[in-house]
UniProtKB/TrEMBL annotation:
This is Helix-turn-helix transcriptional regulator. Residues 1-49 form the HTH luxR-type domain. InterPro entries: Sig_transdc_resp-reg_C-effctor, Tscrpt_reg_LuxR_C, WH-like_DNA-bd_sf. It comes from Chryseobacterium endophyticum. It comes from the Bacteria. GO terms for biological process: regulation of DNA-templated transcription. Signal peptide: none annotated. Pfam families: GerE. GO terms for molecular function: DNA binding.
Amino acid sequence: MLVKGYGNLEITNMLNIQPGTVSTYKKRIFTKLKVENIPDLVKIHLEFKS
């Protein structure tokens, strides 16, 4: 959802979870993949997709 451009609030509403949960998992994803921002996450997504 992050790679598709959805924001934290949109993700929160779609999954019916707390905003803090989205933030926590977003931080965990960034840490695990060693990225600092969404464009870097998109690059990784595109690399795996090819």
